[in-house]
Amino acid sequence: MKSRLPRTLSTAILMTGLLLASCPSFGADDGGLATLRGAPIPKTAPDTGDALKKAIESAPLERDFTQQPPLVSHAVDNYPVTRNFNKCLDCHSWENYRKEKATKVSQSHFQSADGKELPNVSARRYFCLQCHVPQVDAKPLIANTYQRPSSAR
Ligand code: HEC
Ligand code: HEC
Fold it and tell me: Between the N and C ends of the chain, which has fewer C-beta atoms within 10 Å?
């Protein structure tokens, strides 16, 4: 019984050693960063995502396709939408949009799933950020030849 623990321990140490030795760029100049296949990963500043987070506050950008939910032309960080409270509607509701100089939510937002016209924004349009995202300067992830149709505004 007595010799069992040390043996397990030394096996663990041996395994760790083998693992480290098999990692090709461990201890190299790149700080040990490598892909699983051992290709080095160039050192760059960490991407903090700040550029993506910053909404472009300007006139609303053009839509890229006709049915696109328009992009939000302002930051939304301080506009919570919870089960009981919707800050967006403080400005975009039909009641308040004139006073706030905001675009009013479209009539389509007052329709229930089975096409009934409702007096208030439909539950399926309540969580605005599900569809509307702030406009940001985001480059296409993959180069493409997509053209905005002339029907999109
Ligand atoms: C304090 C008032 C205010 C609040 C709160 C607010 N907005 Fe806005 N929003 C505006 C104004 C003003 C504009 C600019 C309208 C323009 O330039 O035509 C705008 C623009 C927009 C647009 C672009 C509309 C268009 O004409 O294309 C969208 C979409 C939008 N907001 C969505 C939201 C969402 C979603 C929220 C909640 C997360 C929200 N807004 C909260 C005032 C507000
Ligand atoms: C399920 C997706 C969805 C949700 C949720 C949603 N919208 Fe929209 N919204 C759209 C689409 C699509 C359009 C463009 C077509 C249209 O006008 O119906 C639009 C249009 C708009 C417009 C522009 C209207 C115009 O005349 O140009 C505003 C403003 C807007 N939405 C605000 C809101 C607000 C505020 C909420 C939350 C209370 C919200 N939307 C929730 C999809 C959505």
Answer: N
Identify which ligand lies nearest to the alpha carbon of 121: 2
- pLDDT tens profile 108-119: 999 999 999 999
Of 106, 100, 101, nearest to 70 by C-alpha is 106
- Separation of 141 CA from ligand 1 center, angstroms? 27
Element (H, E) at 98: helix 97-100
- Whole-angstrom Cα Rg for the chain: 27
Q: pTM for the full model?
A: 0.78
CA 13/CA 23 separation, integer angstroms: 16
Domain ranges of the chain: 1-44
d(CA 59, CA 73): 6
pLDDT bin (cut points 50, 70, 90) of residue 86 is: very high
**Ligand 2 atom closest to Cα of residue 91:** 35
